[in-house]
């Protein structure tokens, strides 16, 4: 879930995450772009749930699946787990979170994540949000999310669960941290350590607006970790500080691990606001490192300026979109240790719209190169995700609007692209469309037409596997679905 300041306007913000157990195979869909995608969202396990209405103005979008993430078992790339929001609400989160799993890479079955009351055996929260999954070297799948209340309290909780059967069932439901307003927890992610069996890291930002009002915002990064395969998690603690600069928050914490050295890298956006919290005065991406499995952390190093601008329909800027601005997508080359970060920025459009940009570091994150343009020139692009395969090929996925015609204000033709850079070389860049062309304006509206604050991309041995959201036209009871596909990164 993303918070947009002033913080006093989000005192009731909440997100949704749940779990349910079903086993409905999803069918493969052949897309006109030439790629074979598999639909992983099938049916609605929360269709009968009436929990979570905040007010008469709250709108739930039944049958919608948005904001997917995924993980691949490092021992077997056919064993895949995806997670996504189910039944998005207009004013925050969803009825719950759902997982879809497969053992053959093609036929997906549904289970429910126990992160909200809509899920059987779920946590005591009205809604859930921010799904994330990561698989450890022993095959344990770690799921992370956020439970949120709107009516009975103002709680926001960081939740975790594990699966030892590839996503079929979930155990060890744990509340790693919980607060009530004026504290607000946001945007958790989880990373399984690829070389330390049983170890995983959950990171997020914790907003403090006490007392409520201007000139009192603090939003440091917090961490909780497990060393026993998710059976227990450590108490939450601050590991990225923001107190030295008033009215500063972090957002989008994501950890990647260098498998050669065991070094952890946490990426995030640091944002500073004016005294009245009405405008952003400074924003830039940073990284901190740990060489002792998350016990201690370095000071921050600057990665790149956050130059993103509001996400809107370029033919009608009154139509707000909601995608991946302010959220970094990092990756590390497993052979060389080169670090990469993809993000939305407006450096290449003169501040007119966001493109997909890439920066890299070859010295362990101490210094970073200048931004490189990945998406096409003069085409708005959104929600980048990045992965690096075992051969060092960098892959990026993103939505773009190249099919939008001037003057078209009734539809927003959108497609999902895959760009590959062998050994990270932009001169060798290739690109292909991997989705249908669909109308973004059919998506649920939640602070903007909402496909999710992020989509997922991971290396899967022979290439990369993507997970993404597409809309359905003329289907108000099923506005969106989630799809996945595996793609070779060399031709």
UniProtKB/TrEMBL annotation:
It is an enzyme of class 3 (hydrolase). PANTHER family: EXO-ALPHA-SIALIDASE (PTHR10628:SF30), SIALIDASE (PTHR10628). Keywords: Signal. This is exo-alpha-sialidase. The keyword Coiled coil does not apply. It catalyses: Hydrolysis of alpha-(2->3)-, alpha-(2->6)-, alpha-(2->8)- glycosidic linkages of terminal sialic acid residues in oligosaccharides, glycoproteins, glycolipids, colominic acid and synthetic substrates. The keyword Signal applies. Its EC number is 3.2.1.18. It comes from the Bacteria. Residues 1-28 form the signal peptide.
């Amino acid at each position: 879930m993303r918070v947009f300041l002033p913080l006093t306007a989000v005192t009731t913000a909440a997100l949704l995450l749940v779990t349910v157990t079903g086993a409905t195979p999803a069918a493969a869909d052949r897309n006109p772009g030439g790629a074979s995608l598999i639909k992983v969202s099938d049916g609605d396990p929360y269709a009968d749930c009436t929990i979570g209405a905040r007010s008469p103005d709250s709108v739930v979008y039944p049958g919608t699946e948005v904001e997917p993430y995924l993980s691949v078992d490092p021992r077997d790339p056919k064993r895949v787990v995806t997670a996504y929001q189910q039944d998005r609400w207009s004013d925050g989160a969803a009825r719950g979170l759902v997982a879809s799993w497969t053992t053959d890479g093609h036929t997906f079955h549904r289970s429910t994540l126990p992160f909200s009351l809509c899920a059987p055996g779920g946590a005591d929260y009205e809604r859930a949000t921010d799904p994330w999954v990561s698989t450890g070297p022993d095959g344990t799948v770690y799921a992370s999310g956020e439970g949120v209340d709107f009516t009975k309290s103002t709680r926001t909780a960081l939740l975790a669960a594990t699966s030892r059967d590839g996503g079929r069932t979930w155990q060890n439901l744990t509340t790693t941290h919980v607060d009530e307003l004026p504290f607000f927890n946001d945007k958790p992610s989880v990373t399984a350590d690829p070389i330390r069996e049983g170890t995983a890291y959950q990171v997020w930002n914790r907003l403090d607006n006490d007392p409520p009002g201007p000139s009192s915002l603090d939003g440091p990064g917090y961490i909780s970790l497990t060393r026993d395969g998710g059976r227990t998690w450590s108490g939450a603690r601050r590991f990225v500080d923001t107190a030295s600069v008033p009215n500063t928050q972090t957002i989008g914490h994501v950890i990647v691990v260098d498998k050669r050295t065991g070094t952890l890298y946490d990426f995030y956006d640091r944002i500073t606001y004016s005294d009245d919290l009405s405008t952003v005065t400074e924003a830039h991406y940073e990284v901190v490192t740990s060489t002792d499995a998350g016990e201690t952390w370095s000071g921050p190093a600057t990665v790149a300026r956050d130059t993103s601008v509001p996400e809107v329909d370029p033919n009608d800027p009154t139509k707000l979109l909601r995608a991946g601005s302010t959220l970094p997508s990092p990756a590390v080359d497993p052979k060389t240790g080169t670090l990469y970060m993809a993000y939305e920025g407006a450096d290449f459009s003169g501040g007119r719209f966001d493109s997909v940009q890439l920066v890299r570091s070859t010295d362990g994150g101490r210094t970073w190169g200048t931004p490189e343009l990945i998406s096409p020139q003069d085409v708005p692009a959104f929600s980048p995700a990045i992965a690096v395969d075992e051969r060092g090929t960098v892959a990026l996925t993103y939505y773009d609007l190249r099919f939008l015609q001037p003057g078209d204000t009734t539809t927003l033709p959108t497609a999902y692209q895959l760009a590959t850079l062998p050994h990270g070389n932009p001169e060798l860049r290739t690109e292909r469309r991997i989705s249908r062309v669909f109308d973004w304006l059919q998506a649920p509206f939640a602070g903007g037409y909402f496909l999710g604050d992020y989509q997922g991309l991971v290396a899967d041995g022979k290439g990369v596997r993507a997970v993404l959201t597409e809309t359905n036209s003329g289907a108000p009871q099923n506005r969106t679905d989630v799809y996945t596909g595996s793609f070779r990164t060399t031709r």
